[in-house]
Amino acid sequence: MKKSCVVIGSGFSSLSAACYLAKNGWNVSIFEKNESVGGRASQFVKDGFTFDMGPSWYWMPDIFDKFFADFNKQTSDYYQLDKLSPAYKIFFSDDVITIGDSMSKICDEFERIEPGSSKALKKFIDKAQENYDIAINKVVLRPGLSPLELVTKETMLKIDQFFKTISSQVRKSFKNPKLVSTLEFPVLFLGAKPSNTPSFYNFMNFADFGLGTWHPKGGMYEVIKAMKNLAEELGVIINTNATVEQIQVTNGKATGIICKGKVHHADKVLSGADYQHSESLLEDKYQQYSKTYWEKKVFAPSSLLFYIGFNTKLKNVEHHNLFFDTDFELHAKEIYDKPQWPTNPLFYANFPSVTDGSMAPKGCETGFFLVPIATDLEDTEALRNQYFDLIMDRFEKRTGQDIRNNIIFKKTFCVNDFIDRYNSYKGNAYGMANTLTQTAFLRPNLRSKKVGDLYFTGQLTVPGPGVPPALISGKLVSELIIKDN
After folding, report:
1. What is the pLDDT of residue 464?
2. Following DSSP, what letter does each residue of 360-378 receive, concatenated?
3. What is the DSSP string of 14-27?
4. What's the confidence (pLDDT) of residue 149?
5. Which of 156, 169, 186, 266 has a 20 to 30 Å separation from 358 between CA atoms?
6. Is pLDDT above 80 for 4?
7. How far apart are CA 267 and CA 246, in angstroms?
8. How far apart are CA 350 and CA 55, in angstroms?
9. What is the arithmetic mean of pLDDT over 460-464?
10. How far is it, in rounded angstroms, from Cα 374 to Cα 426?
């Protein structure tokens, strides 16, 4: 008789785990509280404009390829993938750096900023590639059950890099502040300051410069649709508008969930919802992590987001644009050290319709703007409007155009929405940061220590925040469930 598993949530990690379990002969049912699958990777469509509401960067294409290959599929079976050229632009107060689609173009740009720097860049990226190979093939494929998982011949040779920081490593080789910011930027995907992130994580720089930035035609939600289709092909039952009210525990073991007052029995329960919220579905005595535990953890930022439909094409922008025209250090302090609304924030602007005409009506532009902010901040309409004006002033100045009169509509999303829509702890956008004390076995466990047959997946457990790690997290937990069975 087939074993059964109910999965709470339908983000990347949940869909990944569901696919692997179904492939191995399990009966799998997903319960998603919202109207559509995807978790934080949801989609907003209005008046012919298409927005990815969550992740918008397609990095580490090899991880997506490996996922689909595990099911004898290719990404091209589900979506068209294009390499962006250029990958992105970074706007500073007095210059613009363009990151090309090859190392030679990036080296030329570094030389323009700081003559002689391309030599240091090549050495830096070579080391980052070594770390990438170790991280992807060794470290992230471990389930985080024991510190011994980190002990391999390769990691022992790199042990010092777990005790140095990205910031110190970058600044040792590069002096120009613009180049420093450019190289420190990718670790922001890991949810912590470069000065608090182990230098081993410079493998993100290889993911950036070495593997490039890609775009699935139609947006990142095409990947979610691909995984949903794959899951259903494998027999997974997906329930939307299905809020889970409780994880049922009998004799110390998870035996199912309660949704809309009805019990759904299963041999195993897996939650890909926010970890802290998942544990709140249990009686207190079955929760592994206390309120104090969560409060002491370093969480990745929340975000203030604006989704905007423009009735004209915009000038001087690329698909991805970073605005680093203010003090990077001050903004980081106002997220992590003294949480507050930022004085003068850095921000990100995404215009997928620059390269993908399917995402906006002809002659129009789809744009979303993201301001990283601390979690658990007061979130009001007045504050959202204040920051909208602040970043629009800078955007118009840096790109040399007036665009406010070209706005057809604007939708905002912030701390309160992350909590309401995703049950996100303190409104975090990316989960728990990958600091030294929150790496591998030091993150919340894939398997409950207090309840048998209960498992967790996603960005608060291993390997950590980001879309590729979420795919891997789903695979790791499925392997654990199958092994435990």
Report:
1. 86
2. S-TT-EEEEEEEEE-TT--
3. HHHHHHHHHHTT-E
4. 47
5. 186
6. yes
7. 16
8. 11
9. 91
10. 9
Is 471 exposed, middle or buried, given 0-12, 13-18 or 19+ CB atoms closer than 10 A? buried
- Is pLDDT larger for residue 416 or for residue 192? 416
Q: Which residue has the higher pLDDT, 168 or 109?
A: 109
The residue type of 193 is K
Residue found by looking up tokens 């939600």 in the block: 221
The tokens of 458 are what?
Answer: 């996603």
Q: Which pLDDT score, from 0 to 100, does residue 161 have?
A: 57
Q: Tokens 């995404």 sit at which residue?
A: 350
Are the beta carbons of 38 and 30 closer than 8 angstroms? no
Three-class DSSP category at 34: coil
**What torsion, rounded to 10 degrees, do the Cα atoms 182, 188, 193, 197 define?**
-100
Backbone angles phi, psi at 251, to 5 degrees: 50, 40
Q: What is the DSSP letter of 286?
A: G
How much is the pLDDT for 328? 87
CA–chain centroid gap for 332, Å, is 18
Average pLDDT, the chain: 93
In angstroms, the CA 223 to CA 227 distance is 6
Instruction: Give the HSE-up count for residue 25: Cα atoms under 13 Å, Cβ half-sphere.
Output: 5
Does the predicted model carry a pTM greater than 0.90?
yes
**Where are the extended beta strands (E) located within 71-116?**
81-83, 88-91, 96-99
Residue pair 308/368 in contact by the 8 Å Cβ criterion: yes
Radius of gyration, alpha carbons of the chain: 22
Structure-derived torsion over alpha carbons of residues 258, 261, 265, 269, reported in degrees to the nearest 10: -10
Backbone angles phi, psi at 380, to 5 degrees: -125, 160
Average pLDDT estimate for 23-43? 98
Decide if 370 contacts 406 (C-beta within 8 A): no
For residue 49, the number of C-alpha atoms closer than 13 Å in the C-beta half-sphere is 24
| 319 Cβ contact partners less than 8 Å away, ≥ 6 residues apart | 84, 88, 215, 350, 351, 352, 354, 355, 356
Per-residue pLDDT at 474: 98
Sign of the CA dihedral with 56 first, then 61, 63, and 66 last: positive
Q: What 8-state DSSP symbol labels residue 188?
A: G
Mean pLDDT of 374-403: 98
Q: What is residue 159's predicted lDDT score, i.e. its pLDDT?
A: 52
pLDDT tier at 236 (50, 70, 90 boundaries)? very high
